[in-house]
Each structure stands twice: as structure tokens, then as C-alpha cells.
Amino acid sequence: MTMAALSAERRRSSLSGWSGRSIIGVLLVVFVLFFAVPIVWLLLAVTKSSKTLVVAHPFSPGSWSAFVANWHQLFDFQDGAVTTWIGNSALYAIGALVITLLVSIPAGYALALTEFKLRQALLVLTLVVMLIPSTALVLPIFLELNSVGLIGSPLSVILPMSFFPFGVYLTYIYFSTSIPRDILAAARIDGCNGFQVFTRVALPLAAPIVALVAFFSFVQNWNNFFLPFVMLPSSDGYPIQVGLTSLLAATPAFNPSSAGSDSVQLPTLALGTIVSILPVLIVFLFSQRFLVAGMTAGGTKE
């Protein structure tokens, strides 16, 4: 091949590489704008009055006084119902999280590193249950809890939320691929029984996957809407995600019959939406290091 042909081939390769990167860059910008624009609008909306939100430019900033007024209207709604809903969400999410960790981590460890009858059947059952939509289980769970008189109590939400087969499977994958068997065998030789091997050796090494399971469980529990909506008949027991429906119903823009002294304006509804996602955002920001370690765990096999 002549020098001219080689030079032409290099130019074509360079142009092809640049065109590919350009297309990828354009697609990334489009996706970023698609997700970022609504968030920016939502953040700006809470700083405006109801009239300014409609009349002013969508991306113009509001004022601090309007934000304070929206804040007071939100937390004065139904004599502080929003504060109660946030407390309920924390109770349900953290209570279910504790039970999930107490069950999922030992279960995943047992499936990965111990031998017992029906072990393979339990693993297959865990995978099958993961494929069932959680909403499909709400009705049978409601009938079961109703038969024992738990409907309307915090346990009617906490106990079903604690059922987290995905956490069991994540833990199973981690212990199957990332824990050296020699370390566990050495601990047994040193005199540790099965429980001590788990608590003193395996569990400290599994801190990344424990954090990952905890994060996924907390996010799922905090954002769960349908289960508490069915299980809790009283507004006093609502979590914040279900409570947002009461705010929506009290917004004249969506429900004209709600106009009155206890009505909610659109900027206040936007503020309620932001408040409802803040705990998840805070947990994510403070746990990024553990989440990255947990997501990369299991990438190599001993």
C-alpha cells in the first residue's frame, strides 16, 4: 500500500472516530437535558408564588419570601400533616431496613457458603420471587394481614417491606465470588463455630454489599406507594409518598372543588415533591463510596 493510501485510510479512520464520538456526545447532551430541565424547573418553582409561576418565564428565579411562604403553607397543611407523614416514612423505611438486613445478609451467606437440603430449591425460589411484580403480592398480603388484625398498624407496612429477595440474591453473589474460602476455613481451624465465622470474619468483609443492600432497601421502602396506600386507611398513618396524593387533591389546579382555606398552590406542591425525595438524595450523597464498592464487589472470582 502506498503512502498516499495509508494517509487516506488514517484520515477516514480519524473522521469515523470523531463522528462516532460526536454522535455519542450529542445523545448524552440530549439525555442530560431531558432529565435536567424538569429538575431545574422544579427547583425554581418552589421560589415563586402561584401567579408568578404561571406568568413569569419558566426558568426565571423567584424570591426568598415566596419560598418561605410556600414552606409555611406546606408544613401548616392539615395542622402539620406533612411532618407526621415524613416521620411515618422514616419509621416504615428504617424499621423494614433493619429487618431486611437481619434476614437478607445471613440468608445470602447461607445460600452461598453452606450446604443443606433444599439449598438449590431455595435459591431458585428466590430468583422466581424476584421476577414477580411487588404490586401483584399486595392483595394476598392484605388478606393475610387482615386475618390477623394488623391492617392499619405500622406492622402492616413494615413486615411486607422487609421481604427483599433482591437483597438475598445480591448477598449470595457477593459471598459466592468475593470471600476467599481459605479465610473461613482458617477461622474454623482457629476454633470459631459457624456463627462466629459469619459475624467475626465474613460480615466485616461484606461491609460494601451490606451498604448496597441497605441503600436499595431504603430507597424502595421510602418510595413505596401502593402497599401503604392499601394497608393504611387513615391519613395519620400515611407515609409522605401517599400523603402527596392529599396535597394533590387539595390543589385547585388539579381539583377545582378543593378551593378553600386549606387549598394548596402549585409551588407548594412542588416543594412537597422535593421534600419527599430529599432523604433519599441525602442518603445517596453520604453513601456513594460504599455503593461504588458494593457495585464492583463480585467482579472477580477467587
Description of the structure:
The protein has 302 residues and is mainly alpha-helical. It folds into 2 domains: 13-63, no CATH class; 74-296, MetI-like fold. It is 74% helix and 0% strand. It has 15 helices and no strands. The protein has helices at 3-45, 50-55, 64-76, 81-113, 119-131, 138-147, 155-162, 165-178, 181-189, 194-205, 207-223, 226-231, 240-249, 266-286, 288-296. Helix 3 crosses helix 14 (266-286), helix 4 packs across helix 8 and helix 5 packs across helix 8 (165-178). It is globular and about 75 Å long. Mean pLDDT is 85; it is low at 298-302. Belongs to the binding-protein-dependent transport system permease family. Pfam families: BPD_transp_1.
Helix and strand topology:
Layout: H1 3-45, H2 50-55, H3 64-76, H4 81-113, H5 119-131, H6 138-147, H7 155-162, H8 165-178, H9 181-189, H10 194-205, H11 207-223, H12 226-231, H13 240-249, H14 266-286, H15 288-296
Helix pairs in contact: 3-14, 4-7, 4-8, 4-11, 4-13, 5-8, 8-11, 9-10, 11-14, 11-15, 13-14
- Helical residue percent? over 70%
Highest-level CATH class of the largest domain: Mainly Alpha
Shape: globular
- The share of residues in extended strands comes to under 5%
What are the low-pLDDT stretches, counting only 5+ consecutive residues below 50? Answer: 298-302
CATH topology of the largest domain: MetI-like fold
How confident is the prediction overall: mean pLDDT? 85
Secondary-structure-based class equals mainly alpha
Q: In CATH, what is the homologous superfamily of the largest domain?
A: MetI-like
* Contiguous helical run count: 15
- The overall number of domains is 2
For the record, give the distance between the C-alpha atoms at the N and C termini, rounded to a whole number.
Answer: 48 Å
**Radius of gyration based on Cα positions:** 26 Å
Membrane topology: Multi-pass membrane protein
Transmembrane segments: 21-44, 90-114, 121-143, 155-176, 197-218, 266-286
Protein name: Carbohydrate ABC transporter permease
Domain ABC transmembrane type-1: 86-287
